[in-house]
Amino acid sequence: MISKPGSALTLATLANFPMIQDGDNLADIILATLKVDQINLKNGDVLVIAQKVISKAEGRRVGLQTVQVSAEAQALADKTDKDPRIVELILMESNKVLRHRPGLIVVEHKLGFVCANAGIDRSNVKQDEDSGDENVLLLPKDPDRSAREVRLVLEKATEQRIGVLVIDSHGRAWRNGTVGISIGFSGLPGVVDLRGDPDLFGYELKATQIAAVDELAAAASLMMGQADEGLPIVHVRGFPYPLREGAFSEIPRDLDSDLFR
Q1: Is 134 in contact with 65 (CB distance < 8 Å)?
Q2: Domains and CATH numbers, the chain
Q3: Chain segment 9-56, per-residue pLDDT in tens
Q4: Are 31 and 16 in contact (CB under 8 A)?
């Protein structure tokens, strides 16, 4: 069953969520913040989490002064006018480089999706001002697992069935601007298959598959913002599809059906 007339989808940021440090227990901090914000989880709710807070809690911050640059990374850095230390990390996090130009390297990430610069980011990452060392943040090693671990703690504490979605901001082919997309999730469907369902006039749908987690990721990203908002968690109520076990492997196209690689 999907949404019916009069149904509503509500999204609310966790206003009192603190800055996350390496080693923090993210699930416990979310529970504490939900209490402060007076949000009681209910069956069917979803929590959307920006990947940066997961990466920070899981110690995925890297000091560039620790990176040893290979000849391959230096050669690609020369072609793209990028810091060779960043390029080395991009290569380490990727299966292959698909495209590049000055300032940009498009890769197939080890997590299975295509993205710019392997998702490595410097924005909203605390720098070591005293030493002058630069830090960047890598994506979580296994966002599905990260989502599952948070979900299980929250479900045990609240005795409610929920979903947890991890998102990142990605650019898109043929369109300007970034949009929130899923990179991992637990407890909710990635793709909802409507093939065989009727449309308004009784026509049987032949190809319609809904990327439900990406649609929700975009909505939540709109609430989180992209600059200094400090709102990395969004509580969702009214998700229009039944919760189920899901995994990010539902999302990427198989290479044999991918017309763009």
Answers
A1: yes
A2: 10-59+139-251 (3.30.1330.100), 61-137 (3.90.1660.10)
A3: 999 999 999 999 999 999 999 999 999 999 999 999 999 999 999 999
A4: no
